[in-house]
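Batch job 17 of 40 flagged for manual review because the log was empty.
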Amino acid sequence: GREKECARLLDLLGDPALALPLYLHGPSGCGKSAVLRATLEALCVPVAYLDCITMPTAQSLFDSCLNQLVGHTPSAANGYTSWAPCDSVGAFVEGLRRIVKVKRQVVIVLDKAERLAARGANRDLLLSLIELPNLFAAAAAAHGHGSFSGSAAGAVQLVFVGETLWPDFQRLCEGDPRVVHFRFPGYSMEGLAGVLKRDVHAVLPEQ
């Protein structure tokens, strides 16, 4: 029942030339995260999933992102160190540049994104992330690697996921026009009935 939303996400995320961050929002339980994951799996693109509640600092977000993209897990064997510890946006951009040089394109998904702007000293983090594709493009050009698949900026795609309505999230972004808005609607009664009819035999006896 989410064919239209899947098609729209494929259009937005399947084009590496799109350098604009995406804000995907809708009510809790409407399936936006599940559909997003399925879409990204279909695109076969490296993805980092970041929870903005359980990762309380910018460094924890940056470290987890790079670790996921390279398949690195901090453990006793490596002294519980990250692949490339990041204490600044600049260090994070440099880590992404090294990764994209090999993987060509990556997607960063930030769940509960509205929490990014509620962190006191880290309030500017959301604005820095919106600027990330351009920062990445500048770093790539400075190192002579501006000819990735699609534009250099489009090699790093950000998806912010939240429940906050678009006007409220736009205010958190200080009205930045570079963020693309995608509203994920809740289920209609007809759509919910279709899901229940599809799944009923998996949870109830055949009779």
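Reviewer: the log was empty due to a logging misconfiguration, but the result itself is present. The chain has eight helices and five strands. Unflagging and moving on to job 18.
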